[in-house]
Amino acid sequence: MSIPAFGLGTFRLQGQVVIDSVSTGLELGYRVIDTAQIYENEAEVGQAIAASGVPRQELFITSKIWVANFAKDRLIDSLKQSLRNLQTDYLDLTLIHWPSPEDQVPVEEFMGALLEAKNIGLTRQIGVSNFTVDLMKQAIAAVGAENIATNQIELHPYLQNRKVVEFAQSQGIQITSYMTLAYGEVLKDPVIQQIAERLQATPAHVTLAWAMQLGYAVIPSSTKRANLESNLQACALTLSDADMALIAGLDRGQRLTSPKGIAPQWD
Questions:
Q1: What is the pLDDT of residue 174?
Q2: Are 170 and 200 in contact (CB under 8 A)?
Q3: Which of 145, 108, 147 is nearest to 124 (CA)?
Q4: Could you tell me the fold of the domain covering 8-183+214-234?
Q5: Which of 6, 62, 170, 172, CA to CA, is 20 to 30 A from 214?
Q6: Catalytic residue annotation
Q7: What is the pLDDT of residues 165-191, one digit of tens each?
Q8: Rounded Cα distance, 229 and 187, in Å
């Protein structure tokens, strides 16, 4: 099984805002929804999915276990609560959201519990998020690379995270890019704007297509119907090798997310 290339993210969206975003997305044809325990919106996401009438088997739902729930005796219970919130019997993908702060819960413990959740049918696939090369190695030692579907990481033209990408891909672990548009910052980049103009596309299309062309899954979010609809068009865009090389040259190691006390020592 692999991770679908294109989905809808729900980070920072809550209440009626997330209900509207997910409802509109599903209406437009999105079938991949990404949420997390710490987003505090699983119940609203579940509500929107239930109201949509889209059959469960057509959907790919991802959530992420928060650091407070990593202990062996808490992880599965917290996942069952996520399932109740989302009004579903299983997740398609469950991720460890961040590494355990100061290694309070060993990687082996939470990955073991996550694999158990998979074995008892609570989730079809498991993976990690915000993991460095060293942490991926520990996760692989715990459960085997074949059981780690993806590493979801901050990745955009200004932070291309090549060291992590190369290691993950060498182990058959797919990369999911979050914040692919760098909070909209890359949309103002002259290089990306020029490519977009030439291809009669938008800078968002170009950036999302660039990530998917490299084999990454993307999960852009939006509260605006026009943007949700527009983002879907990135799936039909193909960039030339020359365009891909131009975007490759934009990397400047600019990390936008690194929460104090939780973020690991980045590669």
A1: 98
A2: no
A3: 147
A4: TIM Barrel (3.20.20)
A5: 62
A6: 39
A7: 999 999 999 999 999 999 999 999 999
A8: 17
